[in-house]
Amino acid sequence: MAHSSRHASNWGWRRYWRENRLAACVPENPDSAAAIETYWSRIFAQFPAGNRVLDIATGNGVLLVWGARTARAAGRELTLTGIDLADIDPARFLPEHRADLAAVRFIGKTAAESLPFADGSFDAVVSQYGLEYADLEPALSEAARVLAPSGRLHWLAHGAGSIVVAQARAKLVDIALLLSSKGPFAAMRAYVKARVRKRKVSRATRELTEALRRAESHCAAKPPATLVHQLCGGILETANQFERYRPADVDDWLNENLKRLRGERQRVRDLLSACLSRRRLARVEQTLRAEPWSGAEFSSFDVGATGDSVGQLIQAVRL
Ligand SMILES: C[S@@+](CC[C@H](N)C(=O)[O-])C[C@H]1O[C@@H](n2cnc3c(N)ncnc32)[C@H](O)[C@@H]1O
Q1: CA-closest residue to ligand 1 atom 25
Q2: 57 close to ligand 1 (CB < 6 Angstrom)
Q3: 313 CB contacts (<8 Å, ≥6 apart)?
Q4: Does the structure show a pLDDT above 80 at 181?
Q5: What is the mean pLDDT of the chain?
Q6: What is the 97 CA–ligand 1 centroid distance (Å)?
Q7: Burial level of 226, CB count in 10 A (0-12/13-18/19+)?
Q8: Does ligand 1 have an atom closer than 6 angstroms to the CB of 13?
Q9: What is the mean pLDDT of residues 81-101?
């Protein structure tokens, strides 16, 4: 791959999109998640029949699912295309959305920085928590190239003050606790070993109890700590009923979850480095306030009574 070192860290997404998820980076608060869907449905409702829409860094195509539904409800047809650097195949891995996804063209293993489309192929480019994962200058230049004159860019990006980013930071702390050398996973592994060998069982039990106690205090101090809750609940239940399990199955469960956690940690790190810091946002502003762009608008997407930001809204028209 010719572009940045960012691409080297994309490995986790392929697996992520194969686990029956429609979207990534969904805010924990359901009202915020619903506000995002409403926003995009309104954007798609504005597109005239026959418009060609490209979703950059589409993942499992959540925007295009909403787009297909909105168009269908309005009795309109849109030509929907999604690209992603990951090797995606949403119709295969999201059977419940097959009807909405059937009409969408997905192209995986495709970088935003070098799009396989002719100049002026689209009337709109959309992206949710996507374009900012790519190298900004080449990706925006490609977005401009594939847009037809008067085509629009609609982009919801991770922004510095966003609750999605705050959630990601909290998740990183949760994962660090789970993966630490004296954390619940290491302690459970030692416990399994001790039980199998029937040696130093009381010490392993004590260390596991302490690790789970620390995890419990963490959950109380930093709610919701969902991952810690769920995984430590599983560990505690397994340790309490150890005789019911085969030790090899417990090891498999631990290894599978460790792999999952490491993938999650990588994705969260990607998110934090993709986030539009003030400096990166200034670069985007500079690019979109110059030709071939015009009418660039920037605003924080604030939701709910508390006005939490779920990201940075960016719109521009291609001249
Ligand atoms: C946070 S996910 C967002 C996916 C989707 N838009 C959504 O809202 O659910 C970020 C996506 O960007 C993709 N990605 C990362 N770097 C990319 C690049 N350079 N070009 C295209 N896609 C990229 C990842 O594979 C991942 O699917």
Answers
A1: 86
A2: yes
A3: 155, 156, 297, 298, 299, 300, 301
A4: yes
A5: 94
A6: 19
A7: middle
A8: yes
A9: 94
List the chain domain ranges.
Answer: 5-162+276-318, 164-270
- Judge if the beta carbon of residue 112 lies within 6 A of ligand 1: yes
Q: Which ligand 1 atom minimizes the distance to the CA of 134?
A: 19
CA atoms within 13 A on the CB side of 139: 26
CA 153 from chain center: how many Å? 20
Interatomic CA distance for residues 142 and 110, integer angstroms: 12
Is there an atom of ligand 1 within 6 Å of 25 CB? Answer: yes
Confidence band of 282 (pLDDT split at 50, 70, 90): very high
28 DSSP 8-state letter: S
Q: Which atom of ligand 1 is nearest to the CA of 58?
A: 6
Three-class secondary structure of residue 153 per DSSP: strand
* pLDDT in the model for residue 8: 55
Is the Cβ atom of 24 under 6 angstroms away from ligand 1?
yes
Q: Which residue has the tokens 């924080």?
A: 300
The response to whether residue 111 sits with its C-beta less than 6 Å from ligand 1 reads yes
Nearest to 195 by CA among 185, 187, 252: 187
Please classify residue 217 by burial: count the beta carbons closer than 10 Å to its beta carbon, then call 0-12 exposed, 13-18 middle and 19+ buried: exposed
| Residue range 57-72, pLDDT digits in tens | 999 999 999 999 999 9
CATH T-level assignment (fold) for domain 5-162+276-318: Rossmann fold (3.40.50)
| Ligand 1 binding pocket includes 274 (Cβ within 6 Å) | no
13 φ/ψ angles, rounded to the nearest 5 degrees: -70, -35
